[in-house]
Amino acid sequence: MAARLMREGQLVLPLALFFACFVFAPLSLLGYVSLHTDVSLQQMGFAQYAKFLTDRFNLGVLGSTLWLGLEVTLITLLVGYPLAYLHSIAPPKWQKVLILMIVLPLLTSSVVRTFAWLVILGRQGIVNETLLALGLIEIPARLLYTQNAVVIALVQIELPLMVLPIVTALAAIDPNLSQASRSLGAGSWRTFFQVIVPLSAPGVLAGCLLVYASSVSAFVTQTLVGGGQQMFMPFYIYQQAIQANNYPFAAAIAMILLFSVLTLVTVINLLARRTRALSHT
Amino acid sequence: MRGESARSRLERWSFGTVAGLLAGFAILLLIAPTVIVIAVSFTSGLSLRFPPPGFSLRWYEALLTASPDLWRAARFSLEVAASATVISTVLAVSAALAIARRRDLWARFLDSIFMSPLMLPTLALGLSLLVLFNLMGSGVSKLTLIVGHVAITAPYILRTTSASLAQLDPVLLESAKSLGAGHGFAFRTVTLPLILPGVAAGAFIAFMMSFDNVAISLFLSDARSEVLPIRLWNIIESNLDVRAAAVSGVLIAVTAALVLLMERIVGVSRHVR
């Protein structure tokens, strides 16, 4: 027994040390840097946090970032769930095709997928050209560099992260259950909302978690599709650190973003534990 | 048996229509951008107009003949992604062997720690590593960049390897041992062959994620060595050069080919769930 524990300790130690040195040490260091009032790191204090949390512009950036995450999560759930459901009822051959259609974009460079939206929503993009051709508008509309554009692009980019956990959850549901529900007289809608959806809740929560965490920190899409007018937390961190060289403030912004995401992750994990407990009773 | 009532038929029809439309929209959303980028990359024009005014291979030619910057960035990205994947695979697979089948609190705790980079804002991690390396006085280099990429790719390999280990029948290992096989021998002849597809799928996903990473590379690469996604990002942000479409076309084609190949060999799609 002791020998086994020793062996396992040796196996897990390298990764544990790596994480201690290159994930937790730097993040703690970042917290320490954020607690300095001056750029030369002489004075300690909460000045950076006070500066962030008392300024309307800063709070606006935080608010729009968290709101962006929420919007993207809800829309991906709305279109992603039906896709996962379609996968669960499709014949095996089509299931394979559908999964590849979901996985392929996931592994395609996110810069490339963001670039696609610049082509679609640009002044000479397909949307503007269509609207012009139909005579609905006379000059190209400004579609890019708006919050909505960022939302649409992110929905497309994060969609696979939502669909895959739901696919897994749906695959684990006994098909006899919806049969039973129907033969007891429940219609399609009722069966769906009262049998299928509750049983797939763990997958839905996992998907929401991944999509939210990923979309609030989606630097590339936020900067390219959002442009200069739309400021979100990741770009703000980058700008303060690299362009303004204000490391304490950048660190404080990063800690605030980190804390917001971790709070949400904790809440959803607690929810997930409760739904799991419910589905076991 | 009686026929369906009008109400249940209406209900089935309305459910099918709504679910079908939403799922169809999702499929369109997944595919359309890729198709549009590929179409634009063959444009004969100077802008990203869609539909293109005519078709030509001029932007792919420009990639071959007039883009040393992109080739250099691509080579650097490949080196970083390959090194990070190798290190990450060794670390994550051995960790998975220790903790995947354990229910103890410490094993679950370590597992959630190792998976945390998937949830953390990667930009914050990038910035924190930059602060660390500056403080240590090492500055940023290819090595520090690889370190950052190992941190964000390890979770993918840990997840697929753990899942393969969870499906491994413990009876197989026990019978190997009762037949006199030592730990090393049983590992090489029983465990490793059975988890290899999971490890390979994880390593493949890790490689692609590293190759695509911007948030970490933004902080940890010096001015001379740019990774491909950042080069591409700069091109797109500064002047929307149509070469960006040609690079995208190449990346889409290579990704699709690799995914299909890996699907054949190890069944990647089974491991991403």
Please work out how many helical segments of chain A DSSP would assign: 13
Do you know the CATH topology of chain A? MetI-like fold
- Assembly annotation: heterodimer
Which spans of chain A of ≥5 residues are poorly predicted at pLDDT below 50? none
Largest beta-sheet details of chain B: none
Under CATH, the homologous superfamily of chain A reads MetI-like
Q: Tell me, rounded to a whole number, the average pLDDT of chain A.
A: 90
Quick one: how many beta strands of chain B? 0
Name the CATH superfamily classification of chain B.
MetI-like
Q: Radius of gyration of chain B from the CA trace?
A: 24 Å
Mind describing the biggest β-sheet of chain A?
Answer: none
Under CATH at level 1, the class of chain B stands as Mainly Alpha
Euclidean distance between termini CA atoms of chain B: 41 Å
Give the amount of beta strand of chain B, in percent: under 5%
How many independent structural domains of chain B?
1
Strand content of chain A: under 5%
Label the overall shape of chain A.
globular
Specify the CATH architecture of chain A.
Answer: Orthogonal Bundle
The tally of beta strands of chain A, per DSSP, is 0
